[in-house]
Amino acid sequence: MPAIDFHRTLPGYQPTPLRDVPRLATELGVGRVLVKEESSRLGLPAFKILGASYATARALGERFGLSEVTLDAVRDAVRGRAVRLYAATDGNHGRAVAHVAALIGAAATIYYPPGITEAAKKAIGAEGAQVVEVDGVYDDVVARAAAAAAADPEAVLVQDTSWAGYADVPQWIVDGYSTLCLETDDQLAALGLAAPDLVVVPVGVGSFAQAVVSHYRGAGADGVTLLAVEPDRAAALVASLRAGKPVTAPTGDTIMTGLNCGTVSALAWPVLRDGLDGAVTVSDDQAAAAVEDLERSGVDSGPCGAATLAAARLVLGQAGWREAIGLRPDAVVLLLSTEGRAANPVPEDRV
Model's pTM, two decimal places? Predict the structure, then answer.
């Protein structure tokens, strides 16, 4: 079953809006700026549940030999069995996994680093999950969650990054994110538009960007320029592209907590290396300013999602870059905003 067909079996499923923001189009000197707003997705303020729900369903479908993977089928399979979902998170992914666990009647244990917001910690706990804070950076948290899951015979590790020997679930998470891309295609078509000219996607471990690159390159949309953006304090993709191989980058505190990752997913790396046209980093100040400007335009975006606007401003403000990719004055720019403000509030000292 394609991911989008599974998502349609979830209560409250509907496509998230594609916002037209003429003010930003004027500022950036392009024909249109469209923002895919993920501030309310299946009851959560971020897109992550698309991957978490589909991957969990596929994993449990494999475990229990389900002939079809729907919400009801997974619930029936879990009923009366001890199933526990494990995940590491820097915010939105963990809450999504916890939410899915509650939806299907399973337990969940979510690990996170100290740097995520108090709002995010409380939101994960409010989903009914057991929460464990790990003193370390995101990579340390992933290792802790993986070790705990390996020691539990009832475990399903639902992690959105991959490594040697762990690839199926991360790939199903990427497949789950394809729903967002398919929705956007339909919404663009309804506006009388074909593929966008420039797509800007945020990168943490890179799984969402992997889905976006796979979608556009797989569709043969050669005219689409794909740009990735990371925090300047967690730039694993940019470091890896410069090195020509995957490297782990140092990370620091950032308001873009959902992107605060030091290692690119093993599955994502070759797709991003070969399919992206560019990658840039932005600062916390640039992301915070973008949050406020999107809000003024009626778009609800947290710092991770608003980083895409910060990146577009950075590159489109440079004439050489605009000319290098042949971006026309009537170009359509698509910004993928992956979270709302409720998912990751901007600290007061940044507002």
Answer: 0.96
